Amino acid sequence: MTTTQQNLPLCEQAQGFLSREAHHLFIDGQRVPAESGQTLTTANPSTGQVLARLAAGGQADVDRAVLAARRAFEGQWSTWTPYERQGLLTRIAQVLDERFEELAQIEAMDMGAPVSKLRGAKAALMKMLSFFASQATSISGETLMNGIPGNVTTMTLKAPVGVIGGIIPWNGALNSQFWIIGAVLASGCTAVLKPATEASLSVLRVAEILHEAGVPAGVLNVVTGSGREAGHALAAHPNVDRVAFTGSTQTGRSIIEASTVNIKKLQLELGGKSADIVFADADLDKAVPGAAMGVFANSGQICFAGTRVLVQRPIVEEFTERVLAFMDTLRVGHSLDDAANLGPVINQTQLENVLNYIDIGQNEGAELLRGGHRLGGELENGYFVQPTVFGGVTNQMRIAREEIFGPVLSIMPFDDVEEAIAIANDNDYGLGGAVWSQNISTALRVLQGVHTGTMWVNCYGYIDPLVGFNGTKLSGYGSKGTSAHMDTYLYTKSVYIQL
Ligand code: NAD
């Protein structure tokens, strides 16, 4: 089902922000234009209309922002106690709790996710901030024994790494920026964030709000602009100590190359092609909506989307029928339509990519069971793709091997546990994955056998900072969540004290 009308009026604050003639960079606590004076435009994916004009930051702007971040890192911010940083994070959580609707509306207009879904992400953000507030007072080294003759005391200390370059994708910037911001504020680092052009607005707004909430000037800076210019300048900057990157595997490679200039530390969260494995004994009342939304949520624009749905052969027909029936309950519509479950994809290029993969799937011999087209009527100007299901997909097909990043679910039959594991592992990515079975031995064998950074059993997509989220193979490295995440914002100093 599709809905067309934009039935939610924007709140005054979101409207005020979106009506700015141009959105400047945020450097050293100030809104400033790009030095070149150049701008880029970004569209509302629900309508295709120009939404905002962004500063096209380049090398000179990245230089300014990195300098501001370096000064802040070495200045008064470095004297803040862990309790003060924790207090700041707690204050930020209170402010964002009050301002979340404004941010959700800005993000909905900018990246197209339904506002109702974005509202649902508030709880996750609050958890994240609470986690990072607790981490601010949990940083510790060790006292260590040693074999040195004489009276020598030895220990390790943890210290903040320095200036972080945070490069953010468009598919969920509102929350995902806090994986960086939270760790920066908890650890005492500073940052320059480079959001994706397609979805920079929530990052710019958050920087302003956080500054008002007490984040000192220079601690968080935002440079908008293209990946090729602003992103590359940040990744290659000799005064940036560490890059936290989320995005495509291809860009991840160029970030690794750029990092060699000063041997930057890296955290890379890259693409995925996760297998969601449904056994014949699964509770289909849960597995069907779980597997379907494991693909369709955010219109398929989720790195850990379980796009390869492996279904045990005896239930392929029943599972397929039930997935198609579940799809009848999904409403695709404008991101401000309160009733929409799914919005558009991000832009024309992504729309064409997804439609191209749907053609490829049909040409490869997969059976198109539902969807496959751009939505028309009153949605014709937005970038809407029908949620799509292919049956009879084999793991050799490109639609099973390559990341589509759109609402395309492939049903792939399998016979037994070992075949399911082999199919799941026959892919270059290793991000997410799931197993649905009421047999604990089956579930355990699969979760141990599949080479992937995160596995869910009888559920899909939970992420809690206390538990974390990981990737392996072409999906990158560096934990999100747990103290392992904080460790990547710190370095260890070994200390020898002759008494
Ligand atoms: P992308 O790699 O094109 O862009 C990501 C960011 O990198 C953007 O800010 C972009 O401007 C910047 N960038 C582009 N080229 C750059 C360069 N040469 N140097 C430095 N920065 C550069 O990815 P995208 O299209 O924005 O996002 C989609 C991809 O991100 C998908 O592959 C998806 O799987 C992945 N993703 C992964 C995760 C995860 O946690 N693993 C989360 C979200 C998205």
Give structural notes.
This protein is an alpha/beta fold and 499 residues long. The longest helix has 30 residues, at 82-111. It starts with 11 loop residues before the first helix and ends with a strand. The radius of gyration is 23 Å and the shape is globular. It has helices at 12-18, 59-74, 82-111, 115-120, 122-136, 173-187, 201-212, 227-235, 249-259, 284-296, 316-327, 348-363, 398-401, 417-425, 440-449, 482-487, and strands at 25-27, 30-32, 39-43, 50-55, 143-144, 152-160, 163-167, 190-194, 220-222, 242-246, 265-269, 275-278, 308-312, 367-370, 388-391, 408-414, 429-430, 433-436, 456-457, 472-473, 476-477, 490-498. A 7-stranded mixed beta sheet has the order 14-15-16-13-12-18-19, sandwiched between helices. A hairpin with a 2-residue loop joins strand 1 (25-27) and strand 2 (30-32). It is built from 16 helices and 22 strands. The protein folds into 2 domains: 10-270 and 475-496, Aldehyde Dehydrogenase, Chain A, domain 1, CATH 3.40.605; 275-464, 3-Layer(aba) Sandwich (Aldehyde Dehydrogenase, Chain A, domain 2), CATH 3.40.309. Bound molecules: nicotinamide-adenine-dinucleotide. Residues 167-171, 194-196, 227-228, 231-232, 235, 246-248, 251, 254-255, 269-272, 303, 403, 405, 431, 471, 475 line the site of nicotinamide-adenine-dinucleotide.
